Amino acid sequence: MEMLLFGVWALLILIPDPGAAEERFEVSVWPDQALVKYGQSLTVNCSTTCPDPGPGGIETLLKKTEVGKGPQWKKFLLEDVTQNSILQCFFSCAGIQKDINLGITVYQPPEQVIVELQPAWVAVDEAFTVTCRVPRVTPLENLTLTLLQDDRELRRKNFRSLAMASQRAEVTINVKAQWVDDRCNFSCRAELDLNSRGGGLFHSNSALQILRLFEFSQSPQLRVSSLLEVGMAETVSCKVARVFPAEEVMIHMFLGDQELSPFLFWEGDTIWANATIRAMEIGDQELSCLASLGPVEQKTSQPVYVYSFPPPVLEMEEMYPLAGTEINVTCSGHILTSSSPTLRLQGAPDLPVPGEPAWLSLNASEEDDGRNLSCEASLEVQGQQLSKTAVIQLHVLYKPRFEESGCPGNQIWVEGMVQMLACVPKGNPTPVLMCTWNGTVFDLEVPQKATWNHSRTYCCTATNQLGSVSKHIEVLVKGLDKGVSSIILVIFRVAFVVGVIYMALIRNIWP
Ligand SMILES: *[C@@H]1O[C@H](CO)[C@@H](O)[C@H](O)[C@H]1NC(C)=O
Ligand SMILES: *[C@@H]1O[C@H](CO)[C@@H](O)[C@H](O)[C@H]1NC(C)=O
Ligand SMILES: *[C@@H]1O[C@H](CO)[C@@H](O)[C@H](O)[C@H]1NC(C)=O
Ligand SMILES: *[C@@H]1O[C@H](CO)[C@@H](O)[C@H](O)[C@H]1NC(C)=O
Ligand SMILES: *[C@@H]1O[C@H](CO)[C@@H](O)[C@H](O)[C@H]1NC(C)=O
Ligand SMILES: *[C@@H]1O[C@H](CO)[C@@H](O)[C@H](O)[C@H]1NC(C)=O
Ligand SMILES: *[C@@H]1O[C@H](CO)[C@@H](O)[C@H](O)[C@H]1NC(C)=O
Ligand SMILES: *[C@@H]1O[C@H](CO)[C@@H](O)[C@H](O)[C@H]1NC(C)=O
Ligand SMILES: *[C@@H]1O[C@H](CO)[C@@H](O)[C@H](O)[C@H]1NC(C)=O
User: Fold this and answer.
1) Which residues contact 76 (CB under 8 A, 6 or more apart)?
2) To test the ligand 3 pocket, which listed residue (151, 154, 182, 206) has its Cβ within 8 A of the most ligand atoms?
3) Intercellular adhesion molecule N-terminal domain: from which residue to which, for each copy (predicted)?
């Protein structure tokens, strides 16, 4: 500059015509290209070669302050530069004004780079959009946005050729979601290259956005019986098949407006929710299953009918009737919800009038003891025939009784063998048995080694609360060797008789 000034001075000295020298004066501005960060300030030096300049300065819409001056220059501070503008630096020299323009370019580096996936959860085979935008970046002509999917460049966009007014620093692409895209990450890189304008290269990256894919096309399937008994625990199940990721499905189940607490479990691409329900209100209700995954919700409902069906009540006037007495057995159904309940008491001659109990009158006999009586109630609910059965066991009381089968009157023991008296009397309550011989009690519980002196006639007495009965039992003890010899004797005799008959026959046939 000093060299230049020296040259100008030299020129002025060499050329004596001052008018010509002044016509050749120049106006210059420093810097010759201004790049200002948004909101920052700029110092401008406007100078001239005119040896004795007239009025000079700068013309700008920006707020300016003169911060220094010399005979041939003026320096200004421009504050809060927020817009591109053109500034004029002018000087007049001997009545001639010259000016020079300075273009001021405001820049703002990309600070925030935003990537958005819309929607964040995408169904397989559906389209989604990836948008990258950079708020407050300028100048757009020098911006490049690059969308990346897992480090792979998806789209690069620059804004050089497009009309500025209609533009925003934004790039959007539509993609069809495929399984391989699940959990891949999307990001965006913004670059502002101001090298050609005397600035640097600014760049910034967005945070990663992870794409989530899902598949959820089938509605839930409910498994519940259409009839539920009031107060009874019942398992209901809701299944969602072909769903991904199954672990992230949320399932809510309701009976009417009461929410159930299901237990969830998964296998592959299927999820089940099982819940135990206990319906408390009779009538029509609705069981529903609401499954949701990401943005999708699917609901299935099924009507259920809640019925009440208490089991029939089977009763006897007397729990322990005596044999020979007449007892009345009744079977009644509690308040049944249907108008057509049916009670059938096993053994009763005919069906009772609806609403009346079924009854059966029977002469309790010894044979009835231990017998079971049953009563079946049936109810038609929503076209379905339901039945319940009640059973009671008869306990008929009767006096002790000996039967030849349970207590034989003649019993043969084998000498030397361990033997017991075989006698079980009948009776209810179970009778107590006592056997005696010549006033001494014979211990029936202990097995005896049979001896000759066991051959006696015992007197056995069976006793219960209703009475007692006695029976004589004759025990005969036989010697083992004597038994064997008698068998041999029998065989010998049979052989002899057969021989005699044979001889007689031979003589008769061949006389
Ligand atoms: C302004 O520019 C002129 C001419 O180049 C120079 O002589 C002067 O020193 C400059 N002023 C400042 C403050 O830099
Ligand atoms: C910056 O923008 C200017 C004006 O549009 C252009 O001339 C220049 O080539 C751009 N530079 C880059 C690196 O894009
Ligand atoms: C993004 O994807 C790339 C390529 O698959 C992988 O290397 C990188 O770890 C991923 N980043 C995150 C945070 O998941
Ligand atoms: C859930 O319910 C279904 C259908 O009732 C049944 O098959 C399955 O065993 C149940 N699972 C569990 C764990 O209870
Ligand atoms: C048995 O009981 C039923 C119901 O209590 C009654 O209607 C019936 O008359 C009774 N029968 C007899 C023989 O007592
Ligand atoms: C029960 O026994 C009585 C008298 O022993 C008799 O009159 C009655 O008919 C019998 N009832 C039945 C149902 O057998
Ligand atoms: C009667 O029912 C009871 C159980 O209720 C059972 O143990 C018994 O064996 C039944 N008796 C007959 C004769 O069926
Ligand atoms: C029966 O008992 C009486 C008195 O206890 C006794 O005198 C008699 O000998 C006994 N008879 C036999 C056959 O043992
Ligand atoms: C029966 O005879 C045996 C000997 O053969 C004797 O020891 C026993 O005491 C006798 N028992 C009675 C009850 O007389």
Assistant:
1) 43, 44, 46, 57, 58, 64, 65, 66, 67
2) 151
3) 22-112
